[in-house]
Design brief:
Helix content: over 70%
Radius of gyration: 19 Å
Structural class: mainly alpha
Shape: elongated
Number of strands: 0
């Protein structure tokens, strides 16, 4: 039974770590602030969830598990809220989202 618990813990920790690496790469490659906020807020919350559940499985039913779950609930509510607040403040400040997609830049009359 302990081997199954260790395997499940490692799978959750590795999945969360890989998701954080993908999120970091996405933050570097995405075209504008709004897509970066979305990637950072959503994927970071899921990665934190996976890592904390893996840590909770490893620690067993102790006070440490209760503390991990409380931190997880806090992150679950604050991360999307802070992402929304940042996007709303950026929009109110006048930063417009990029709407032309990920493809190469379109040529205009000014570029010709």
């Amino acid at each position: 039974m302990e081997l199954v618990l260790d395997i499940a813990t490692w799978i959750l920790l590795l999945a969360g770590s890989v998701l954080l690496l993908i999120t970091g790469y996405g933050l570097l490659r995405l075209p504008d602030l709004y897509t970066r906020i979305h990637a950072g807020g959503m994927a970071d919350t899921l990665a934190t969830f996976l890592i904390f559940i893996g840590l909770a499985l490893q620690s067993g039913f102790t006070l440490v598990t209760a503390k991990l779950l409380l931190v997880l609930v806090f992150v679950f509510f604050t991360s999307p809220t802070s992402s929304y607040a940042l996007a709303q403040a950026s929009f109110v400040a006048g930063l417009k989202p990029k709407l032309d997609g990920f493809g190469p830049a379109k040529k205009t009359d000014e570029d010709a």
